[in-house]
């Protein structure tokens, strides 16, 4: 039986919620899927997606959101003022590296699934109501907006050198009706084909609300051929 766990860990000095399926913390070197959410980084919106990835691949899955995007008991420890370095892009990167260095089996091969860092909430099915209400907190949303502005200020061009180094390991799922990532951005990535695999879909940018199973199916098909031999 699949073990679903929601735990609170401290990463880069910030209390953080993690959702795991299986045991990515200690799994004898088995391949692991790390899912990094979009912004807002509310991990509970990715429950169905994480479950589908785990079911379709049989691999342990860890879903992590963004520093400061959780309801925490100690609000002072996650306040934005005076701690901006913990919640900007560099701070979020350190936050994820802390997870990998200290809470993920270091013998494992990792498969990263990243959702855009600029998602938004719209047209939610009714079963998401309680999840939304949980995060309607000004202490959280100030950090959501802070990260969004930092993204738009600092991510302005495609890191072609970076993509070139990992093109043979990278797969892109994009939508023609995304509304956030324009189609011409995808054309910039097409120069790396056929090494970089790309698939066009017809889903909303915030796919976790309506298309978790569909996107998980595609992502799983990308991951399965890359699973370590003998799995």
TrEMBL record:
Any Gene Ontology CC annotation: lipid droplet
Organism: Parnassius apollo
Pfam family, one: LIDHydrolase
GO biological process: one example: lipid storage
InterPro entries, alphabetized: LDAH
Annotated GO MF terms: lipase activity
Keywords associated with the record: Hydrolase
Name of the protein: (apollo) hypothetical protein
């Amino acid at each position: 039986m699949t073990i679903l766990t929601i735990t609170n860990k401290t990463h880069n000095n910030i209390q953080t919620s993690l959702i795991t399926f299986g045991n990515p913390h200690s799994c004898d070197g088995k391949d692991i899927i790390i899912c990094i959410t979009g912004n807002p980084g509310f991990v509970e919106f990715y429950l169905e997606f994480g479950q589908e990835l785990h079911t379709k691949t049989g691999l342990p899955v860890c879903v992590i959101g963004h520093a400061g995007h959780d309801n925490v008991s100690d609000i002072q420890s996650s306040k934005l003022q005076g701690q901006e370095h913990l919640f900007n892009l560099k701070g979020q990167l350190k936050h994820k590296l802390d997870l990998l260095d200290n809470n993920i089996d270091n013998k494992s091969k990792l498969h990263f699934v990243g959702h855009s860092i600029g998602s938004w909430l719209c047209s939610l099915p009714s079963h998401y109501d309680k999840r939304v209400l949980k995060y309607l907190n000004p202490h959280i949303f100030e950090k959501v907006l802070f990260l969004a502005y930092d993204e738009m200020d600092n991510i302005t061009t495609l890191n072609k050198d970076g993509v070139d180094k990992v093109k043979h390991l990278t797969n892109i799922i994009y939508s023609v009706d995304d509304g956030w990532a324009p189609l011409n951005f995808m054309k910039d990535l097409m120069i790396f084909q056929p090494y970089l695999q790309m698939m066009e879909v017809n889903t909303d940018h915030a796919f976790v609300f309506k298309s978790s199973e569909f996107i998980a199916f595609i992502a799983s098909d990308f991951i399965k051929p890359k699973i370590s031999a003998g799995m």
